[in-house]
């Protein structure tokens, strides 16, 4: 694995988007609550479809109110599934889509993937700039492991997936939603620290769990690993934790 990649999803290259640890600590939880949907059934958090499905994003207190086009998009998306009783995508659906992307690679500038192109055009890029600085266009060539995971959630309309390009704030969001743990379940979002640290502040990379091999390793599907989407076998010692989207049953 390249040295660039070891930092890739922790600090975005050639931008200020990663921000300092102090800045992330100061604003991370609040910013993440603005950009991602809470799990269904929570009595304390907004129940909305996450990522580019697209989630309802609360207005900043200091910003003039505008028509909530994101909420309208959510409402429209919800209407499509009314007759199906809002059947949620399953973990199998998410993994099938993720595995169909194996072989996608970045260009010589570190960009050019559909995941980066989607993120730049999504509301999450603007939210990231508001939080971390830089420009929306910076994401076009930024490290994309978390954009890949977010794209999967957006394409399928997975609830409780969240969306970000910065792994540490995405992981903290899962924890804040009460959707964080230590079990390697299929479809879980897995966060890694190559140092073996168990601190969210030290996360370097993210992917999705395909299965637990029950031998101290897990099989994963990851974006921006050696600059491509690949299936990997990872030692659990490098896992910081797992985020759990709200999937439906494969039998639904």
List the helices and strands and how they pair.
Blueprint: H1 3-8, H2 21-35, H3 69-80, H4 91-99, H5 114-121, H6 123-132, H7 145-156, H8 167-176, E1 180-181, E2 189-192, E3 205-212, E4 217-225, E5 228-235, E6 239-243
Antiparallel strand pairs: 1-6, 2-3, 2-6, 3-4, 4-5
Helix pairs in contact: 2-6, 2-8, 4-7, 5-7
Evaluate the radius of gyration.
Answer: 17 Å
Portion of residues in beta strands equals 5-15%
Number of helical regions: 8
What's the CATH first level? Alpha Beta
Number of domains: 1
The major β-sheet equals: 6 strands, antiparallel
Coarse structural class: alpha+beta
Summarize the structure.
The chain has 252 residues and is an alpha+beta fold.
Q: Could you walk me through the main structural features you see in this protein, from its secondary elements to its overall organization?
A:
- The protein is an alpha+beta fold.
- It has a single domain (3-59, 68-243), classed as endopeptidase fold (from Nostoc punctiforme) (Alpha-Beta Complex).
- It contains 8 helices and 6 strands, in the order ααααααααββββββ.
- It has helices at residues 3-8, 21-35, 69-80, 91-99, 114-121, 123-132, 145-156, 167-176, and strands at residues 180-181, 189-192, 205-212, 217-225, 228-235, 239-243.
- Strands 1-6-2-3-4-5 form a 6-stranded antiparallel beta sheet.
- Helix 2 (21-35) runs antiparallel to helix 6 (123-132), helix 2 packs across helix 8 (167-176) and helix 5 (114-121) crosses helix 7 (145-156).
């Amino acid at each position: 694995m390249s040295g660039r990649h070891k930092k890739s999803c922790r600090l975005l290259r050639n931008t200020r988007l990663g921000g300092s640890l102090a800045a992330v600590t100061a604003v991370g939880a609040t910013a993440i609550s603005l950009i991602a949907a809470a799990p269904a059934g929570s009595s304390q958090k907004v129940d909305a479809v996450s990522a580019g499905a697209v989630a309802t994003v609360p207005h900043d207190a200091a910003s003039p109110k505008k028509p909530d086009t994101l909420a309208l998009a959510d409402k429209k998306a919800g209407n499509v599934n009314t007759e199906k009783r809002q059947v949620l995508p399953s973990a199998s659906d998410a993994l099938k889509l993720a595995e169909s992307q194996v072989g996608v690679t970045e260009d010589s500038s570190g960009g050019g993937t559909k995941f980066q192109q989607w993120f730049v055009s999504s509301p999450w890029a603007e939210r990231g700039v508001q939080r971390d600085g830089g420009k929306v266009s910076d994401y076009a060539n930024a490290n994309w492991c978390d954009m890949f995971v977010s794209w999967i959630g957006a394409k399928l309309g997975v609830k409780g997936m969240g969306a970000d390009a910065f792994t540490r704030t995405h992981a903290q969001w899962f924890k804040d939603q009460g959707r964080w743990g230590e079990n390697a379940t299929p479809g879980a979002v897995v966060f890694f620290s190559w140092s073996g640290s168990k601190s969210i502040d030290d996360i370097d990379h993210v992917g999705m769990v395909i299965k637990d091999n029950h031998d101290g390793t897990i099989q994963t599907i990851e974006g921006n690993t050696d600059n491509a989407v690949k299936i990997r076998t990872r030692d659990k010692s490098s896992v910081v934790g797992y985020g759990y989207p709200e999937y439906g049953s494969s039998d639904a």
